[in-house]
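Long-time lurker. I teach an intro course on protein structure, and each term I like to show students one example going from raw sequence to a predicted 3D structure in token notation. This year I'd like something fresh instead of my usual example. Would anyone be willing to generate the tokens for the chain below so I can use it in lecture? Attribution to the forum is fine with me.
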Amino acid sequence: MTNESEALKVFLGDWSAEGTAYGADQKGEPWRSVHSAVWHSGGFFIVQNGRANGPFDTMSFLGWDADRSTYFSWSIENHGFAREYLVTVDGDVWTFTGDQERATITFGDDRRTQTHHWEFRPDGEWITLCHRVATRVT
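-- Reply from a regular --
Happy to contribute to a lecture. Here you go:
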């Protein structure tokens, strides 16, 4: 396991999240979700499976791409979308940057909370997609 892969362990575990999701009209709706993150065999990549109200089901892969010298996340969801994000880390803040969506995930000092702030750009300008706080269950 590389040092870069070791840093991914903050995502491991079972999490429960609450917050607010927004559409292009910016009308907020309650968000509730659960997700689980485990190591893929070999200990280099994280596999994360999530279920949210809506329904909104996701599966993502998070890891270090040595060829590009960057973290990445690939995500698929039940509405047919597939996304790739380049990921940077600055202390407790992980920033996911994609063509149409971006996010910051900030871990609490105790590593038991993740604060997610997602944005998207339906008309070319970045606006809030959702804001939620996930708490580690296990």
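Some talking points for your students: The chain has one helix and ten strands. Strands lie at 13-22, 28-39, 45-52, 56-65, 70-77, 82-90, 93-97, 101-107, 113-120, 127-136.
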